Amino acid sequence: QVQLVESGGGSVQPGGSLRLSCAASGFTFRSYAMRWYRQAPGKERELVAAITSAGDSISYPDSVKGRFTISRDNAKSTVYLQMNSLKPEDTAVYFCYAVWRSWNYWGQGTQVTVSS
Known about the structure:
Elements lengths: L2 E5 L2 E3 L5 E8 L7 E7 L6 E6 L6 E2 L8 E6 L4 E6 L8 E9 L2 E4 L3 E5 L2
Parallel strand pairs: 2-11
Antiparallel strand pairs: 1-3, 3-8, 4-5, 4-9, 5-6, 7-8, 9-10, 9-11
C-alpha cells in the first residue's frame, strides 16, 4: 500500500521556521522525483519545491527561493522541506507528491499557519 505521510506542520510566528517531513512507503522511493505543493484557502495548489530522484537538481519558485530548502534521504525514504523566514502568506496546507513516469502519489497534507 502506497503511503506518503507528512508531518511537522503547525503554527509559528512570522520570521519563524518549520521543518516538514514526508515519509514514503509502498513504492521505490529512490526512483521518484519528489515535490512539495501548498494550497491556501480559496487558491489553487502551487508548487513550492522540487527535487529529482537522485537529489542532483532542485528548483523553487521565486516566492520561496532563499527561504525554503528541499532535501531527501533515500535511505530513509523521506523528503524534507525546511522553511525559514516564514511569512503570513506561507499559510497553507502543504502536500508532498511523488512522481515517476505515469505513476504519481499525493500525501494527505499538513497545515502550516503563520500568524502573530
